[in-house]
């Protein structure tokens, strides 16, 4: 059984989401209040507290069956605005109230949905804790589960493309993204591939990964998001 299949059968995404959530809450509650106003390098329009507002808003909205109108930027903007002036303990109390239903839903929906929301939360967790000067475990289960989601999303984006397939080699695992013959290969640490796929690595950083083959076909598309104009170091 390969790594993805093993995780699909063994990881409880609801429990993993809860663990990341509690770690994030612990970090932000321990922070100096002035640090909550710090801009997050990977999302430069958001403060630390805005990130907490966003992830709280996701749980609120999806529990209520509100999936937005198809504009993801507008959807997240509303979530941030909803809580941007509320005291942080009040925002966290809302998240605590919504979380049990949300986490149960991740279990019910299965790994290929659950890893999406684990991945989204973990990326924001890394954004926040590194902004606040804390280290991150770069080889945790959360890294691998999150990477499964981002590579699933990359696979979906590449389906039907005629450029051939991309081989992704990360740690002990290898995955073919796309269809047809492999036309390019990229190798980097799991954490680096994850951050790149999530729009947290610049084009220059992505180019410095260990590429072979027709890398120019895939480097600009490794992330489904726009890439930062300057290097991101966390």
**Helix and strand sequence:** HHEEHHHHHEEEHHE
Roughly how many Å apart are the termini? 31 Å
Structural class: alpha+beta
Number of strands: 6
Dominant shape? globular
- Classify the fold: give the CATH topology of the largest domain: Four Helix Bundle (Hemerythrin (Met), subunit A)
CATH architecture of the largest domain: Up-down Bundle
Overall residue-averaged pLDDT value: 94
Strand content: 5-15%
Major sheet characteristics? 4 strands, mixed
Work out the helicity level: 40-55%
Rg, Å, rounded: 18 Å
Condensed summary:
The chain has helices at 3-10, 13-30, 48-63, 72-83, 88-109, 111-131, 141-158, 190-197, 203-207; strands spanning 39-40, 43-47, 165-170, 173-177, 182-187, 210-213. The protein has 2 domains: 3-131, Up-down Bundle (Four Helix Bundle (Hemerythrin (Met), subunit A)), CATH 1.20.120; 147-221. The longest helix has 22 residues, at 88-109.
Question: Could you outline the blueprint of secondary structure elements for this entry?
Answer:
Blueprint: H1 3-10, H2 13-30, E1 39-40, E2 43-47, H3 48-63, H4 72-83, H5 88-109, H6 111-131, H7 141-158, E3 165-170, E4 173-177, E5 182-187, H8 190-197, H9 203-207, E6 210-213
Parallel strand pairs: 3-5
Antiparallel strand pairs: 1-2, 3-4, 5-6
Description of the structure:
With 234 residues, the protein is α+β, with helices and mostly antiparallel strands. It folds into two domains: 3-131, Four Helix Bundle (Hemerythrin (Met), subunit A), CATH 1.20.120; 147-221. 55% of the residues lie in helices and 12% in strands. It is built from nine helices and six strands. The protein has helices at 3-10, 13-30, 48-63, 72-83, 88-109, 111-131, 141-158, 190-197, 203-207, and strands at residues 39-40, 43-47, 165-170, 173-177, 182-187, 210-213. The strands form two sheets. The protein has a four-stranded mixed β-sheet with strand order 4-3-5-6, covered by helices on one side. Helix 3 (48-63) packs across helix 5, helix 6 (111-131) packs across helix 7 and helix 7 crosses helix 8 (190-197). The longest helix is centred in the middle third of the chain and has 22 residues, at 88-109. It is globular, with a radius of gyration of 18 Å.
